[in-house]
Design brief:
4 strands, about 35% helix, 3 helices, about 120 residues, 4-stranded mixed sheet
Length: about 120
């Protein structure tokens, strides 16, 4: 299930190629989310064209809304698709930190069984 994405262009018309690319890259971030948050996660991607004296640049912002937290990332690049790639990596790292906070960590499985059979020690009979 892909994340519901909303795309907004400021001084930029989002064409079909960019629209599909955003759906592909941002939509697949749901695999990094905890299962209980996948249904409610939404993303808003804003692409803004910034005219500089040395050429056009694109500023891309992404806001990912998950329960109890809002995850944001921002990047500027001379290519829109490259900026979206960088945003995907930034959001993935922030999602992994969010998942570590939210997921309850209950001890290691079979921890005592590993202690009883330590390598190199032979039990006496």
């Amino acid at each position: 299930m892909a994340i519901k994405t909303e795309k907004v262009g400021i001084n930029y018309n989002i064409d079909e190629v960019t629209d599909k690319y955003i759906e592909k890259r941002i939509g697949r971030l749901d695999r990094f989310l905890p299962r209980q948050t996948r249904k409610t996660a939404t993303a808003k991607v804003t692409i803004k064209q910034v005219n500089k004296s040395h050429g056009n640049k694109y500023s891309v912002d992404a806001v990912l809304t998950v329960p109890n937290k809002v995850i944001t990332a921002k990047d500027e690049s001379s290519n829109v698709l490259a900026a979206i790639d960088i945003l995907e990596v930034k959001l993935a790292s922030q999602i992994s930190r969010y998942k570590a906070e939210v997921t309850p960590h209950v001890g290691k499985h079979r921890f005592l069984a590993r202690i009883k059979r330590l390598p190199g020690k032979v039990a006496k009979k």
